[in-house]
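Lecture 7, part B: from sequences to assemblies.

Below are the input chains for today's worked example.
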Amino acid sequence: MSEPLLHGFFRSGASYRVRIALGLKGIAYGNASYSLRDGAQRSPAYLALNPQGLVPALEIDGAVLTQSLAIIEYLDETHDGPRLLPTDPILRAHVRAAAQVIAIDIHPIQNLKVLGWVKALGGDESAWAARVIEEGFAAFDALIAPHAGRFCFGDTVTLADVCLVPQLVNARRFGAKDIPARLLAIEEACLALPAFDAARPENQPDAV
Amino acid sequence: MSEPLLHGFFRSGASYRVRIALGLKGIAYGNASYSLRDGAQRSPAYLALNPQGLVPALEIDGAVLTQSLAIIEYLDETHDGPRLLPTDPILRAHVRAAAQVIAIDIHPIQNLKVLGWVKALGGDESAWAARVIEEGFAAFDALIAPHAGRFCFGDTVTLADVCLVPQLVNARRFGAKDIPARLLAIEEACLALPAFDAARPENQPDAV
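Predicted structure of the full complex, as structure tokens:
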């Protein structure tokens, strides 16, 4: 079986999630980089791989997988290493819900495409993104409050942490205010782990 | 154990997904309705239940679960009835990815809150929503093409169908064009099933 190949971009938050998961699972992989600002992810060659024209996509185990959460759950179900979802069904649902607050209710509303549309309407892209992130983080913080320890859910890294850390990069880029202190403390604990540190945008081969 | 209680709204696409899943699993449940246009989901009583102020939330098995996909995976993991995710890990990833094209890349970008922001910028809400849906459906159709049968993945209902059918309601509401014929055929097959039919917005007690 050849080494998995991650089609991504150093600055893509969804690619960052998958890089963290691959690192936590101890899976060596190659990188193919697509500059999103140049539209490289819309090239015919990449569209043949992922008709959605979005990164990331992961070539692994003879398949091309898309959508970062689906990829990460696949890795969690099929590869050794720390479990990113707890075994208790109720707790699994809470972890997935927290991850989805970020992956569904924050990230897609502040991605490059949507911000381009906001700009075309004469809107302030950063203000739009900051508002989405501030409202989303307030909800995320309230949802994890009963569960949080060193990480979002106790003292074990979960899918919620894997989504939180990349979103904090975007929060800073867009000048989001009032980031809950709990989230910053969790970020610090995560980035102290080699898998998170190695996955940081600035540590990627395609970083500019 | 008391009967599960679904906090939702007849017109909410995410609530519709959960209603379908509850029906497919044969789970009887009660309804609590929140008129989204009136902001009922932002009432202090509901925020105490779900700090995100979004429907649906499901009270079940002594917990309050939020986020429709997390709720549905919980039901799939813990309750009898047809499996909404295949057992093969690669296929599970493809089904989740298709569901996420709708739940991540379409639905949140055309929800009531975001459309309100678009309107405030002087944008055309329906044109914005239609564009999101048309682009998303084109990608969804391409992703399921290698797998589709009577339903999105072969001849068995999956999470992808549970997400598709409610999104088609929004597609029509916003005047989306060029809906792939395959998706309309799958919709027809789904709505012939009692669980889908019973979950339709117009068949809810709070429908107006």
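Note for the exam: Strands of chain B lie at 5-8, 30-33, 57-60, 63-66. Keep this in mind when comparing with the next example.
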